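Let us work through a complete example step by step.
Step 1: write down the sequence.
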Amino acid sequence: MLNTLIKRLSHLRASFQIRAFRSALSSLDAAPQFAILGILSGLFTGLVILLFRVLVEQVLTWILPSGPDRFEQLAALERFLLPTAGAMVLALIFALLKQENRGVGVSHVLERLHRHQGYLSVKNLLVQFVTGAIALISGQTGGREGPAIHLGASVSSLLGQTLKLPNNSIRVLIGCGAAAAIGSSFNTPIAGVIFSMEVIVLEYTIAGFMPVILAAVTGTLVVQQVFGDEPVFFIPGIAMDSYWDLPWIFLEGIVIAVLAAGLIRLMVICHDRAPKPIAIKIILAGLVTASLGFVVPEILGVGYDTVNQALQGSIPLMILLLICCTKLVATAINLGLGMPIGLIGPTLVIGAMAGGGFWQLASTVSDQVSAPGFYVILGMGAMMGAALQAP
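Step 2: predict the structure and record it as tokens.
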């Protein structure tokens, strides 16, 4: 009897504390409460992203012993069969799912954010986790950041729903989850903050800025406990060393704009003209990736190992152009047909190849141009900014 009374009193006390916490979020001085939410969002997002990355990289390391991005080491037939088999598994999964449970990726997060007050479901989270992992493991052309953003936003939204927080707080939490996801993916919290504020939140406020920063830092620290603090890209010391770079930079910007416009346009065409059955779309996307990867293995998977080679200037011009064009076509078709992976990674690879190509051209005309990493970094930033419309 006494134990039951104590339990009820404890439950009542906890209920009052949560209710007081929710009430405080609507006040003008809610900074401490938002700080706590940001840290919790970063913690839970970091744990989910950590689990996702460990799963993907452990399986890829088993398939590709020399490194989880080294699809080039596979025989030509294996490069064709792996994406094809992965696409068939994904097609079966999506065919068995209800329509409302097929939504994945950044587009799904934005749709739920703007039309449903940011309420994301557990089912879609699980679908993104499983299908995103299968897509990345099977070498589909795309990035892991799209699935990571969905996972982080969903975990954070579910945190807000569990605490029965007001809608504006859930929107802030989604921004926190996205920032933590990007920060933990690249080991750069500031990149997560900028991306979240530019693409997800779409506004800069003090109340929203602080928890997003805390979430990005917390999520990054969680993932660093396993993967270390080395950045994804090994960037040499870069600087603009000569005014001879200026005309090449101008031309690079124009070409990158054309590439970004072509990527988006081709994605829209593929989306609009694709056959209706989701299974057929996924299989078509897998066959395109398999066919192109059979000839150009560098387009398979995320491709960050190829970016690091471009940063050092070690890829010949014609190979750079070949990777750039095939990666663009494969990415547009994959994402246009609904492959459950992200756009950010491919834009970085495409931009890096274009930037590396411009350095190769510039260095043949003059020996007074900057290092290759300078042109590659400019291409990466320009391509991602143009494709996402978030400079």
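Step 3: interpret the result. The chain has two domains: 30-227, 245-388.
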